């Protein structure tokens, strides 16, 4: 009997194989920092493609467990995480996934290096990036609030490279009555006669309930039965003996994806907590955390896109159908090329925002730059979250039936991606945040100014079709921004998603064009230009003419194609 076997997709070193990342860092990091960061990035790229990927597949079905009672009837609420999850804590600390942003070594580019590390780690981490995002966000929020005792108590741990000392933080915001609408928060903060505070309430989704600290919102009890102001509180869920203090774990959530992440539903019943800064303005105080976790979300989304393209591309170089490797079939190559172009656009948009963040944290942004960063944070998050799901789905489809089989490890990619447009604000909530950011006139002007500067530099005639589309879209976006002033609030809100997506696409294209110019003029690399032309034609004009040679260049993504291993066909 003939038995047909296929070669599974393989991953090479995920740093070395990523020409978009390496080119970006090559362009934007000064040489000494490039030299210092390269070995660390390469080490993580190796780990991500090797040991961690193998373990992800081998431990696919292992999940965290909540043990609520001990055999003698005592309530213990112990959350047993997976072995890989435990190891990721140590790896995250020792690779400086949070620490790098707070150390002096790579300033003023530390955020760029840090997020390059995060990007490599995320697809291999079983979504350990979720608690890391919240840890980074908590460090930033504590610094912004400026409470010296809390900074002294927690910052050194949140930014430690020592796995024993390293703490992660939770971000406990979501309640049954207030997920997106955080004003619905019902948790109450009650002050005791000794001046300390206790929290009482029900947190509906607390990602990583295993964190050593958390920032959470609660209403300060007023005594008159009225809803008190919303304040930001710091808490440590466990006492010195590791027992929850005033917290009951009601259950772990049965989620579509992120199955290794022990997201819990918690009852707070007298949890000791400390106000972070005063007893009001909770949303304003937690906003620095949201903006950091949203940046992580964007970086993790593009990392997911990149992993999907890497797997789909490798498979297309192995699998033979219709007498040729998939990558040689024009329509398959066109599909891969479109995926690569979509990924590159999302990458440029996200890392552009990361660069702005780096400048902001080093006091190198003026007011207009600050307004632009405020705008691009939700813009990048909503765009990349949405597109990551579509792209992973495309990758699974391009692998055919095997992409639908659990034990290939591929379906988990899709399930995990689906959280990206949900947590940290859904697409619609983020689109409304874009409107909030645009209420500062400087944001819209800075955005258009940035687009114009990027387009003005894209002077190579080979880029002309993409430039034409970008200019047309620029006109539409500018007209919409202008028209907003005269429309009702309801009309503005109804159009917010379309506007935000168009703005994200336009800036992504402008950034791609700029990278394409650099590719043509400096790196002698036509692939970014192919990506810009493809993105402009694909996302913005479905009927664009196709170019098989350029598709193939992007699909295979090497300038000179090495010999490929053919698919295995075994006949027993
Ligand atoms: C793998 C990647 C890992 C990613 C991490 C995963 C972690 C998962 C855990 C979670 O998902 S936790 C839940 C996340 N929840 C949200 O993201 C909430 C979504 N809802 C919103 O974002 C709402 O827009 C918001 C709660 C902010 C609305 O609240 P309000 O009180 O109606 O907002 P309002 O009144 O407009 O703003 C209050 C203040 O905050 C204003 O400042 P002022 O008091 O000075 O006027 C706003 O300007 C400010 N503000 C709001 N959003 C801001 C902001 N400031 C800066 N940046 C922002 N984004």
Write up what this structure looks like.
- It is a single chain.
- With 572 residues, the protein is of the alpha+beta class.
- The protein is built from 19 helices and eleven strands.
- The strands form three sheets. Strands 4-5-9-7-6 form a five-stranded mixed β-barrel. A two-stranded antiparallel ribbon has the order 1-2.
- A hairpin with a 5-residue loop joins strand 4 (188-191) and strand 5 (197-206).
- Helix 14 packs parallel to helix 17 (496-523).
- The longest helix is centred in the middle third of the chain and has 37 residues, at 282-318.
- It starts with 18 loop residues before the first helix and ends in a 16-residue tail after the last helix.
- Mean pLDDT is 94; it is low at 562-572.
- Bound molecules: decanoyl-CoA.
- Residues 127, 129-130, 133-134, 171, 173-174, 180, 182-183, 207, 281, 283-284, 287, 290-291, 293, 296-297, 300, 423-425, 429, 433, 436 line the site of decanoyl-CoA.
Strand numbers in spatial order across the main sheet = 4-5-9-7-6
Query: What's the SSE pattern?
Result: HHHEEHHHHHEEEEEEEHEEHHHHHHHHHH
Give the overall shape.
globular
The total strand number stands at 11
Task: Provide a count of the helices.
Answer: 19
Q: Which molecules are bound besides the chains?
A: decanoyl-CoA
SSE blueprint:
Blueprint: H1 19-28, H2 31-49, H3 51-58, E1 65-69, E2 75-80, H4 83-94, H5 99-102, H6 110-121, H7 129-145, H8 148-158, E3 169-172, E4 188-191, E5 197-206, E6 213-220, E7 230-235, E8 247-252, E9 264-275, H9 282-318, E10 320-321, E11 324-325, H10 330-361, H11 367-399, H12 410-417, H13 427-438, H14 441-456, H15 464-484, H16 489-494, H17 496-523, H18 527-540, H19 548-556
Parallel strand pairs: 3-6, 4-6
Antiparallel strand pairs: 1-2, 4-5, 5-9, 6-7, 7-9, 8-9, 10-11
Helix pairs in contact: 2-3, 2-6, 6-9, 6-10, 7-8, 7-9, 9-10, 9-11, 10-11, 10-17, 10-18, 10-19, 11-12, 11-13, 11-14, 11-17, 13-17, 14-15, 14-17, 15-17, 15-18, 17-18, 18-19
The chain binds decanoyl-CoA.
């Amino acid at each position: 009997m003939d038995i047909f076997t296929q070669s599974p997709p393989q991953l090479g070193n995920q740093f070395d194989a990523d020409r978009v990342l390496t080119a970006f860092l090559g362009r934007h990091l000064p040489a000494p920092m490039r030299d210092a960061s390269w070995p660390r990035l390469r080490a993580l790229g190796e780990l991500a493609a090797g040991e961690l990927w193998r373990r992800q597949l081998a431990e696919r079905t292992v999940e965290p467990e909540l043990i609520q009672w001990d055999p003698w009837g005592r309530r213990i609420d112990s959350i047993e995480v997976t072995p890989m999850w435990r190891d990721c804590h140590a790896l995250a600390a020792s690779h400086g996934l949070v620490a790098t942003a707070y150390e002096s070594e790579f300033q003023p580019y530390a955020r760029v290096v840090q997020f390059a590390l995060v990007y490599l780690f995320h697809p291999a981490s079983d979504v350990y990036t979720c608690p890391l995002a919240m840890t980074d966000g908590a460090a930033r929020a504590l610094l912004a609030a400026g409470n010296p005792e809390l900074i002294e108590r927690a910052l050194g741990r949140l930014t430690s490279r020592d796995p024993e000392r390293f703490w992660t933080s939770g971000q406990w915001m979501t309640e049954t009555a207030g997920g997106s609408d955080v004003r619905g928060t019902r948790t109450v903060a009650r002050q005791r006669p000794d001046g300390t505070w206790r929290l009482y309430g029900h947190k509906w989704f607390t990602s990583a309930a295993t964190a050593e600290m958390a920032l959470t919102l609660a209403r300060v009890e007023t005594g008159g039965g009225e809803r008190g102001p919303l304040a930001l509180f710091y808490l440590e869920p466990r006492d010195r003996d590791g027992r929850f203090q005033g917290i009951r774990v009601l259950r772990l959530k049965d989620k579509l994806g992120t199955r290794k992440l022990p997201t819990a539903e918690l009852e707070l019943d007298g949890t000791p907590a400390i106000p972070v800064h005063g007893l009001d303005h909770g949303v304003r105080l937690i906003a620095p955390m949201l903006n950091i976790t949203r940046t992580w979300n964007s970086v993790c989304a593009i990392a997911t896109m990149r992993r999907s393209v890497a797997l789909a591309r490798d498979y297309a170089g192995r699998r033979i159908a219709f007498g040729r490797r998939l990558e040689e079939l024009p329509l398959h190559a066109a599909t891969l090329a479109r995926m690569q172009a979509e990924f590159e656009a999302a990458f440029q948009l996200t890392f552009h925002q990361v660069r702005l963040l780096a400048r902001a944290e080093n006091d190198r942004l003026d007011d207009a730059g600050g307004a632009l960063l405020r705008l691009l944070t939700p813009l990048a998050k909503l765009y990349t979250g949405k597109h990551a799901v579509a792209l992973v789905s495309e990758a699974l489809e391009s692998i055919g039936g095997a992409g639908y089989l659990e034990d290939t490890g591929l379906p988990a990619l899709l399930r995990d991606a689906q959280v990206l447009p949900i947590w940290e604000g859904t697409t619609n909530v983020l689109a409304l945040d874009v409107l909030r950011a645009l209420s500062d006139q400087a944001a819209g002007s800075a955005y258009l100014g940035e687009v114009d500067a990027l387009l003005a530099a894209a002077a190579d005639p080979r880029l002309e079709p993409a430039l034409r589309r970008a200019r047309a879209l620029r006109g539409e976006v500018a007209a919409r921004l202008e028209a907003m002033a005269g429309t009702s609030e309801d009309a503005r809100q109804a159009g917010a998603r379309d506007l935000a997506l168009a703005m994200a696409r336009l800036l992504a294209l402008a950034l791609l064009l700029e990278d394409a110019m650099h590719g043509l003029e400096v790196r002698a690399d036509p692939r970014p230009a192919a990506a810009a032309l493809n993105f402009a034609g694909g996302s913005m004009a479905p009927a664009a003419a196709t170019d098989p040679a350029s598709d193939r260049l992007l699909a295979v993504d090497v300038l000179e194609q090495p010999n490929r291993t053919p698919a295995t066909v075994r006949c027993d």
